[in-house]
Amino acid sequence: MGTTRREVLARSGVLGAGIAFSGAVSELFAGTAAAQGTGGSAGYGPLIPDPKGILDLPRGFRYKILSREGEPLRSGEGKVPGHADGMHAFRSGGHGHGHDRGHRDDSVWLVRNHENRMDAKAPVPTVPGLTYDPAAKGGCTVLEVDRRARVLQERVGIAGTSTNCAGGPSPWDTWLTCEETEFKAGEAGHTKDHGFIFEVGFDKRRPTSVEPLTAMGRFQHEAVAFDPRTGAVYETEDAFERPFGLFYRFLPKKPKGGYGSLHAGGTLQAMRVPGVPDLSVVQETGKSFDGIEWIEVPDPLAKETPIRFQDFGKGGITHAQKLEGCYWGGSCVYFVSSFAKSADGSQADHYGQIWRYDPKRNRLTLVIVFGPDTDLQLPGEEPDNICLAPSGGLMVCEDGEGAQHVYGLTRGGEVYALARNRQNVGTPEEPAWGEFAGVTFSPDGATMYVNVYDPGTTFAITGPWH
């Protein structure tokens, strides 16, 4: 189907924002738990201006700020770091950390990334036993939140990592935090190599390991998703310069081995789509490619050459610009390319793609293409973090310019605005980095948690969800 931006505006009641896209949106939910939800209504009405100038929501919805950059961490370990990015909500399960107090069995654990580089003004505090590289300023923080959105705990999950952008949850309830960098020891002030994945836990059964999962590769990581049947892990790479990133598959030596098993190693492969060196050239939604090839990465540690530059033999390898969000749904893995620009070196332009890979059929399909829309002469919204909503839809974090939104996408292909950031609206000339990130739902589906990147802020949003 095709939808213009103007039609989206008329339908959602949002002035000055919207999504233009094409594709069979219902495919995103095939075989998922979300497909069993209602998801029949398109949105919750127009966004109501927030008198506090922080977050606009539909009528009946409320937000609460759980944590904000610069405030003291409740653990006393320092201040809340900045650049809040990828995040996931885990059910408590009644297993608290050794020094936890006020713990409740019905609480939720939020593990939150901080995409801090070496120039970050609000670094993750270094903590003994939880710090990889004392010179690096990124990492994760962990919040325990009860059903009333009261923060019971807030502490450092891992420190001394760099540019922790996204990641993904494991089947055994740990968070894999990904470094979106590939600096080596001695470069830009780092004392250790970076560009790895780390496994972050939140209780005594699953403690954080500060040893990187080196077999999963050293590159500019973005997100990961697990195949629950085979244990394979899919990884996206958001490389900033040509040749752009790759889509990877990691085959663990101990598939479905549980906590700590990823440290046993495995095989890292990169995806080759025969005859397609750059995914940006594919513009037709529903276009499928069979016979996908998975080529073993010659040097996963990239000791001499970044992986995307390495020799993958005859036929080369398939690249894509801005590979970001990644999730498993039903029997397939979905991943996002936020945009592609020929001016940057891509072979074609687009304003966002969502791809589906079906391991059983070994088939890759372009499911959604976002923008551009000529009606308002504006660029597309550059979708970034995505998650399935318990009500039967998809939530998309906007990562573009100007006003930033969290959009909902129904199975019927209808788009609506769920939230708008009002606290730091920028312009193309002076971006404010007010993007949303880390959207996730509580296990009971009653609360949506989401971050604003800068100033690093975590919100809990409740309301009359469908």
Automatic annotation (TrEMBL):
Region annotation Disordered: where it falls in the sequence: 72-102
Biased segments, Basic and acidic residues type: 72-88
Transmembrane segments: none
PROSITE patterns listed in its UniProt record: TAT
A Pfam family the protein falls into: PhoX
Protein known as: DUF839 domain-containing protein
Species for this entry: Streptomyces daliensis
